[in-house]
Amino acid sequence: MCQVEEGYHGQLERQEVPRDCFKEYFIHKFRAMLGKNRIIFPGEKGLSQNAHKKLRFIPGIIYIDEGAAVGLSEEERHRMVSELQAVFKATGFPFHIVPLEQVLDLPSSVVVAAPSPSTRPASTYKAAVDHFIQSDSSKCLTPLKQDETSPPDVPESQTHLLQQLIGSAKTLTAREDLLNTLRQHLLVHTARTEGYCKLMLGDNCTRLAVKLLTSISLGRGAQLAQDTGFSDSRYGDIISVRPMRDYSAKEIGYYNHLFNVPSVFMPGLDTKTTDKASIQRLTESFVTKLQADFPSTVSTIYRTSEKLQTACRSSSTADPCARCLLCMCGLDTVVENASAYQATLISEQLSQTKSLGASSTSVSKQSPAAVQSEWTAPTGQCCSSSCSGGGGGGGCGRTVEGGGCCSSAKIAETTDVRSLLCYSCQLTIKDMSSVDCLPHYILSEAQRRQRRSQMREEISEFLLDDGDEGD
Known about the structure:
By secondary structure, the chain is mostly helical. It has helices at residues 19-37, 74-91, 122-134, 138-141, 156-167, 172-194, 205-217, 224-228, 249-258, 279-293, 297-306, 340-356, 360-364, 383-386, 408-415, 423-430, 440-458, and strands at residues 61-65, 95-99, 198-200, 231-232, 239-241. The strands form two sheets. Strands 3-5-4 form a three-stranded mixed sheet. A two-stranded parallel ribbon has the order 1-2. Helix 2 links the parallel strand 1 and strand 2. It is globular.
């Protein structure tokens, strides 16, 4: 790698690290990752570097302020945002600081995959790069000027609702998984509204190695290829890429130290927690400690992830009901009866049957899908008793035993989301005290999918199968 000092072959334990060689090596690895995959084309909003160390795309920075989720005060959040603004302004790139509270007001289109652009062949990429080099590239490299704007003010009620949502998860494992999902939704929505088509994430190989083992522990084995791969097109029009996936955390740390890259410390949900506080924290501790004794641990896990391919239904399918409502990956719960997932449902059903005691006879006659009622809102009240303010409306006057209140079916339809989730997201929702705390855009999309599925079932006798179209 280094042609100046033969004794240095990527070993960062040396006292004297060749700065120039390390910088060239660091930049080349980033450039090679983008050039090898050929996903980001010239003219798109993204960040890359060519051989002349010039930006090929219009870059942008997006920061999600998660201070409310981790319990920071308003003064601490303002101080942290001010420090980040100074760092972002020094780069000269346009930046967007978005509070996490805005996730509560997202549209339902966030959890609906948009039509993906047509795939362009490799020859098109080469032609686009040649045209960029031959043309006056300075016009494409000018960063957009951004006016002096302060982060939007967040109402205290929104902060309280967000804290209530995060706090509804009983375990730290579920809270971290839920926070990651909300962050991803807000990133995709911001990218769409600001005109970005690529979302460049900062995941390095150390973090991806931890994420791979964590995902397996959380039941996300079917989604590993999308969660750890270079590109992720689950949202259709917005493609997430991980150009830093070949870097180790140690390499990034050395680069930041050698070249005085400014940094701002931001606490997370797992800050100052024990190793066994969550599955994510335990896995991270296990991998980092093992890496200290066996330096090839992270690289071995990381290289293994490159060979993984999903075996479940592709998430690029046009049917939105075939995707998980939260993570937007293909559902891994549509399986045969003789499967591990169905065996898990039966075990869960039998456990609930034993605890219910008197109602064991009625529960034992239900199918494994009957455990979905665990996520439905409690029924048995008339809609008149649930109206706030108690004004004038007498309600329908019917109880569930007498045929069902007109509002009970709507509540059950909205909150019974288990059939719309993958196995891992089911475990996250199961750890929540109530699904009513979920943002409105998730609940409304769940209701829309259930109505669509119900309508499709009603007209199924009049639909032609794929094999009947040629008859």
